Amino acid sequence: MFISHRALEGSPRHRMVVGTLLFLIMLLLGAVMTGEVLRDGASTLWRVAFAAGALSVYTVAWWCVRYWYAAFTQGRRAEPAPEPNFWPWALPYVFLLVVMIVTGVRQLMGGESGGWFALGFATVLGMPFIVVGATGLWTLARSPRRGSRTTPAPGPAEPPRPRRDWGPIG
Questions:
Q1: Is residue 121 classed as helix, strand or coil in its secondary structure?
Q2: What is the pLDDT of residue 49?
Q3: Is pLDDT at 53 greater than 60 in this prediction?
Q4: CA distance 105 to 115
Q5: CB count in 10 Å sphere of residue 111
Q6: Is the sign of the CA dihedral 107, 120, 33, 132 positive or negative?
Q7: pTM of the model
Q8: Sign of the four-CA dihedral 103, 55, 2, 89
Q9: Which residue, 53, 84, 80, is CA-closest to 66?
Q10: I need a surface site. Which of 34, 80, 96, 102 has the fewest CB within 10 A?
Q11: What value does the mean pLDDT of the chain take?
Q12: Is the distance from CB of 63 to CB of 89 less than 8 angstroms?
């Protein structure tokens, strides 16, 4: 579940609406997952999986409240409220990947061939993590070690240019 930065841009009122709607959706999803955890007759693995999913969804709901609060306080305080980081949005995605991998391996160990679909789908969904991780490792390997090279001292600063205010044109 990803939200583009473009969808979150706009006026503070628009951002409050987006944050409120996302909060309500995530709260409803978390309540449904919590209901599955509390259901009678569910296995322990089922309860643990839905409890982890509910916790990750509640974390995203908390992020939505923080986002809404940052939009609400904009212009009402001397210093702006800091924008929350986007890391909570990765939690449900990672949870889904883990569930798919565990389900696929469990099905394959039970002799069902449907496990290959779950593992393949998890691989396709996990590809962005693999690409980002490989790119980060490649960048770290190619970058020079810190402190091994000396940085040249900055040259003399250019004096500021005079400002010419010619007045209105016409």
A1: helix
A2: 79
A3: yes
A4: 6
A5: 7
A6: positive
A7: 0.53
A8: negative
A9: 84
A10: 80
A11: 76
A12: yes
Structural tokens at position 114: 């449907």
What's the pLDDT band for 19 if we cut at 50, 70, 90?
confident
Residue 82: DSSP 8-state? P
Alpha carbons 22 and 158: distance in angstroms, whole number: 49
What tokens were used for 122?
């998890």
Q: Tokens in use for 163? A: 């400002």
Nearest to 58 by CA among 81, 34, 35, 38: 34
CA distance readout (Å), 78 to 10, 17, 71, 110: 21, 23, 14, 61
Q: Which value, to the nearest 10 degrees, does the dihedral of the CA atoms of residues 88, 93, 94, 98 take? A: 150
pLDDT of residue 1: 42
Is residue 31 predicted with pLDDT exceeding 70? yes
**pLDDT tens for each residue of 103-139:** 888 888 888 888 888 888 888 877 877 777 778 778 8
